[in-house]
Amino acid sequence: MALPIEWVDDHLPALHATRAGGRRHDLILLTAVWMHLDAGEREVAMEAVAALLADGGQVVMSLRHGPVPQGRRMFSVSAEETTRLAERHGLVLRFLGEREDMLGRGDVTWSFLVLLRPGA
Questions:
Q1: pTM, whole model, 2 decimals?
Q2: Complete domains list, the chain, with CATH
């Protein structure tokens, strides 16, 4: 059975089109994108993501740590900083894991966070 999927053309940090839809979501995935936002953009993005999350919903995200490849826009961002930012927007840390790079790059590591919006 096919699931109904609606594609929305939008982007971080503000997610204007997605927020305009008025729906709240049980799960939001942010995979290897957060470190491409500077500190100000991360503040706006966390507010937008938190506003999109339903009570009891979760954000699952990954953070890349390591040298920035030539020609890429990336910023150093820690799991601790991200957790504090999430807490300011009503989210709580449910899980934090760390691991080596899946592509075998010795100078790259990853953090995986699950953030929860408490509720019903």
A1: 0.91
A2: 16-116 (3.40.50.150)
